[in-house]
Amino acid sequence: MARKKRLDLTIIVDLIHVTEYLWAAGRAFHRGGSPELERGVLFFVGRELQ
User: Does residue 13 register a pLDDT over 90?
Assistant: First the structure.
């Protein structure tokens, strides 16, 4: 829609809150404090920073 109207947009991501949600979502799949949980969260935080 923005492209059709030729608008420039800046998307701002609140990384603090995104990270909190990633930890919560990760705990649904992995035990708290597990290496798998930490690796998963770090993977997705890294993707957000790219």
Answer: no
